[in-house]
Amino acid sequence: MYGRGRGWSPRTPSPFNRVAANRDGDILRGAALQEGTKTPSSLNDDNNITKPQPQSHDPFDICPRPLPTKQTAPTVVLKPSLLVTNRERRKQAAEGGGTGTHSHPLVVTLRPGMILLKKYISVSEQVTIVEKCRELGRGSGGFYQPGYGDEEGEGAKLRLKMMCLGKHWDPLSTHYTDHRPSDGAKPPEIPPEFHRFVREAMAHADTLHPITPDICIVNFYSQNGRLGLHQDKDESEESLRQGLPVVSFSIGDSADFLYGDSRDVDKAKKLLLESGDVLIFGGKSRNVFHGVSAIHPMTAPNPLLHQTYLRPGRLNLTFRQY
Ligand SMILES: O=C(O)CCC(=O)C(=O)O
Ligand SMILES: [Fe+2]
């Protein structure tokens, strides 16, 4: 995914020092290194440092329930009335999308091989996706904060939480593996309903080869999340040669998505990806450089938040065929 396309390996000096210094910022150093990880080294009985142990990752809940307030016991969390929810749904439908009727999606060709299905995923489908990602994300192989740098996980961290389905993408080796090296977890399977959503979306991108995804990388960006410009180049040579597309679902807060022909942020185009958007890039755009430069707070659709408690931020799923 990110690594190989970014043109470095763990044994060569990481370009992230450069990236971190130039505001493109897909990593955090220092204090943020602590988030979501535990140090893998430990002492044995004789107080000698042992070999690195498998890490455990703190569970990460993308839909935390509100804490009860002090003065009232037990707290009842009020969901909006049906009237309010329906009004919001109608408003959203009137604004042009996310209605769940895929008969006339707005299909925009951004460049050859790069297709945007605007507000394509209905709110109820977004709810299904969020709930499934929540469930899988809290279990074995669920969300963690991926690190680069060294085998002890003491290097830089990506500025997002990640979970892989189908196969694990390892940021250290920049290869796909059957298990997550840090804790040995096997990635959960891609849920059958996700396969259906991808199949239906692909039908609107008929200039591109359809995929049968066997990998889905799920990223959760908090409001200061970022992802530097990179190419997705770690799938099989055959997949890349055929230009098999990456299918990307955006849910939650909107994001500034950058794309272009080089890693140069100043030359990249900027696209606002909103909740329910599907971006497909394959064929002549399979190697496009892309990244996320900003998340826009408080832009997620209210009905989605009311139904899922999705935390502030953005969920992105990229489906690929190895
Ligand atoms: O979050 C996005 O829109 C892009 C994610 C991405 O490029 C990746 O996971 O490789
Ligand atoms: Fe990517």
Describe the fold and architecture.
By secondary structure, this protein is of the alpha+beta class. Helices cover 19% and strands 23% of the residues. The strands form 4 sheets. Strands 2-3-13-10-15-8-5 form a 7-stranded antiparallel beta sheet, with helices on one face. A 4-stranded antiparallel beta sheet has the order 9-14-11-12. Strands 1-4 form a two-stranded antiparallel sheet. The chain binds 2-oxoglutaric acid (AKG) and fe (ii) ion (FE2). Residues 1, 230, 232, 290 line the site of fe (ii) ion.
Unreliable stretches (pLDDT < 50, length at least 5) are: 3-52
Q: Give the termini separation.
A: 11 Å
How would you sum up the major sheet?
A: 7 strands, antiparallel
Strand element count: 15
The average pLDDT is 81
Instruction: Kindly estimate the percentage of residues that lie in beta strands according to DSSP.
Output: 15-25%
Contiguous helical run count: 7
Domain Fe2OG dioxygenase: 212-322
Cofactor: Fe(2+)
Pfam family, one: 2OG-FeII_Oxy_2
Biased composition (Polar residues): 36-56
Provide a brief overview of the structure.
The chain has 322 residues and is an alpha+beta fold.
Helix and strand topology:
Blueprint: H1 2-5, H2 16-21, E1 27-28, H3 82-94, E2 106-111, E3 114-118, H4 123-137, E4 157-158, E5 161-165, E6 168-170, E7 175-177, H5 192-202, E8 215-221, E9 227-230, H6 237-241, E10 246-252, E11 254-260, E12 269-273, E13 278-281, E14 289-296, H7 302-308, E15 314-320
Antiparallel strand pairs: 1-4, 2-3, 3-13, 5-8, 6-7, 8-15, 9-14, 10-13, 10-15, 11-12, 11-14
The structure holds 2-oxoglutaric acid and fe (ii) ion.
